[in-house]
Amino acid sequence: MPKTYAYLGPEGTFTEAALRMLMPDAPAGSLVPCSGVDAVFSAVRGGAVDGGAVPLENSVEGGVTATIAELINGDPLLIGAEVAVPVEFTLFARPGTMLSDVKRVATHSHALAQCRGWLAANLPHADTFTVSSTAAAAQAVSEPGAPYDAAISARLAGERYGLAPLVSGVGDRADAATRFVYLRRPGALPEPTGADRTSLVAFLPDDHAGALVDLLNQFAVRGVNLTRLESRPTGDGLGTYCFCIDADGHVAEARVGEALMGLRRVCREVRFLGSYPRADADTELTPLLPRGGTSNADFLAAEQWLARIRAGAVA
Ligand SMILES: O=C(O)C(=O)Cc1ccccc1
């Protein structure tokens, strides 16, 4: 059976563009639009599709709460791949609409957060509305009796729903990018590539001084670089948090594996979210080489030394 992939729909979302980058060979008809991030997770968890794409974080607005909540809770899924997509926002309306006619603007909450400055300067009296995606906003604007005058979306979405571009580049930061992840059910991990990322959620055992330092030390002492640390409420009452962590490296590498074992010892629970190739593997700025004493060979040599001295040797 041909594989199918869910994404945050409808057609024309940034997530669809990301999924097409992640699955360049996916045949037409294999991409399944879903009405929300939760619906993508359900489709993957329930086996209705082979995998799915969701937005995870944005360089301006930070984490996508709906995605992070689903990663933390419910049946665990694994991240199988990631892609970072530059996002450019365009204000679209029904053909014939003038900018001065725009009183009600709809878009996704993350898009709104990234266009606030432009809206305040150019449409200060317009009301804004958040909907499930930028393409859902464009679709809504295109329908007869639409409750909105304009949508902020990707160029593709505006065109897909027969709208006219009013203003392009309405984002406040031209360099904004969003990181999307490909979700899959648990199963064999991709082989290490030498430039991988490992994602996990760590739940502390109790509230004590230095608990977060204990957690971070598991990575620090093994030379594992962290690329993201985000605290999220567990839902078990005020002041109870878990930590969403992205680290350089693959769990098959000794230093990452040892750091995860250390975490497992000092945490109440560790939810492993996968090891997968980094989207920015070719970026020279990112330190991909382990620090001295933390390479796989260093860990192996130390393990063999321990075995020798345990057996009575002196070195
Ligand atoms: O609504 C979309 O098109 C999405 O894919 C979610 C989103 C919204 C804003 C920036 C990046 C992704």
UniProtKB/TrEMBL annotation:
Task: Identify the CDD domains for this entry.
Answer: ACT_CM-PDT, PBP2_Aa-PDT_like
Q: Which reaction does it catalyse?
A: prephenate + H(+) = 3-phenylpyruvate + CO2 + H2O
InterPro entries noted in UniProt: ACT-like_dom_sf, ACT_dom, Chor_mutase/pphenate_deHydtase, Preph_deHydtase, Preph_deHydtase_CS
What Pfam families has UniProt attached to this entry?
PDT
- Recorded E.C. number(s)? 4.2.1.51
Give all residue intervals belonging to the ACT domain: 200-277
Q: Which UniProt keywords apply?
A: Amino-acid biosynthesis, Aromatic amino acid biosynthesis, Lyase, Phenylalanine biosynthesis
Domain of life assignment: Bacteria
List each copy of the Prephenate dehydratase domain by range: 4-185
Give a Gene Ontology cellular component term annotated to this protein. Answer: cytoplasm
Pinpoint the site Essential for prephenate dehydratase activity.
T178
Database matches in SUPFAM superfamilies: ACT-like, Periplasmic binding protein-like II
- Pathway, per Swiss-Prot/TrEMBL? Amino-acid biosynthesis; L-phenylalanine biosynthesis; phenylpyruvate from prephenate: step 1/1
Please give the PANTHER family that the UniProt record associates with this protein.
Answer: PREPHENATE DEHYDRATASE P PROTEIN (PTHR21022), PREPHENATE DEHYDRATASE-RELATED (PTHR21022:SF19)
What's the protein name?
A: Prephenate dehydratase
Q: Which organism is it from?
A: Nocardiopsis ansamitocini
